[in-house]
Amino acid sequence: MGTSHQNEYTIRSRRIYPDWAWDATRHAPQCSGTGALTTGSYHPIEGVPDACFVYLRQLSSQRYLIALNFSSNEQTLKLSEMGNGRMVLSTYLDREEPIDLALLRLRSGEGSVIELANH
């Protein structure tokens, strides 16, 4: 991807997600130092709505669930086998809370990083 395409993507992102595109960097340090996100093993999660992409990143005891909703509608994920976790980052920048993955709701266009409890 050349520089002009990167600039176009950045400008388009700012129009679509004006707050997230620039403010998420304030929240990124919460995820820094987590080797699972950068070098951990990758495990796709099956059985989620077609509009969602969900996967697990794991390194040793660190486990993070990444859940992305690519639709313009809210999506509900039923991931009870994953247990509980803590939302550490959401594209809406308003959810830093404990999460019960038995019923995870993702809003339109929402992406989230969830730190999973050790099992």
Structure description:
The N terminus is likely disordered. The termini are far apart. The chain has 119 residues and is of the alpha+beta class. The strands form 2 sheets. It has a 6-stranded antiparallel β-sheet. It is built from 3 helices and 8 strands; from the N terminus they run H-H-H-E-E-E-E-E-E-E-E. The protein has one domain: Immunoglobulin-like (Sandwich).
Radius of gyration: 15 Å
Strand order of the largest sheet: 1-2-3-8-5-6
CATH class: Mainly Beta
What is the CATH architecture assignment? Sandwich
Structural class: alpha+beta
| Quaternary structure classification | single chain
Instruction: Give the terminus-to-terminus CA distance.
Output: 40 Å
Q: List the uncertain runs.
A: 1-18, 20-29
Question: What key attributes describe this structure?
Answer:
single chain; 119 residues; alpha+beta; 6-stranded antiparallel sheet; disordered N terminus
Show the helix and strand layout.
Blueprint: H1 3-16, H2 20-27, H3 35-39, E1 41-44, E2 52-59, E3 62-69, E4 75-77, E5 84-90, E6 98-100, E7 104-106, E8 111-116
